[in-house]
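User: For my dataset I need records formatted as: sequence, then structure tokens, nothing else. Please produce one.
Assistant:
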Amino acid sequence: MNWSNRLSRAFLGFGLACGLAMVCHGSQPDFSYSGDTGPGFWAEKSPACATTASSRQSPVNIGEVVVDRQLLPLDVLAGETSFTVKNPGYTVVASPRSAALLTLNGTTFQLLQFHFHTLSEHTLRGRHAVMELHAVFQDASSQLTVIAVMYRVGRENPFLATILRVGLPQKTTSPAVTVDGLNLANAFTDLSSYYTYPGSLTTPPCSENVTWFVLQQFAEMSASQLQRFRDVLGNDFRPLQNLNDRVILATRRGR
């Protein structure tokens, strides 16, 4: 069976429902990254966003890690498809016509969307990357996994160039755009080298049902590409959250 047939069958089997601000974007959000709707006030409407001694919130700083040599490369099945790109007011979100699949320990997760943050939300040994992509996957029981890609300034990025050729919606009132022939697999660097930990959504409702996979290898993007994203996104990153008793596992010790 080819990849498109497998994706179509999986897509029909999930029957996904909306309800998470980070995943669904049909209405104006009631949060932002500054002012009286900024991160310091998110817990007033979404109690899970509050910082406590037992919270498992994201993002976090990736500093001390434990190498687990039993971690396997991430198994992602993707191909070219069309994406609808919208601006829900807190990021730019791309939703697929035919979803990619991620298989973890025999469980299949379907791609819901991918979106961007500038600067990065996670930090590596205390330093932000210039941008971070989040590819959000969900299984049949509504558990989430997110593959995160960190960017540094360097060569022009062909995956981002395909999106930028169509143009990023500037505002919530901007019409959605369609990007054809985009393969999410081309956004990823090395799927065998990553950090992983249990965490949460990084936007309200901050649900703690997310397994994070932060790829160790950075992707590159040109300075002009970064500027085009920053012109739209500004600073749309949540402050770092306490790791508390969580352990960050790694396929190998990052550089």
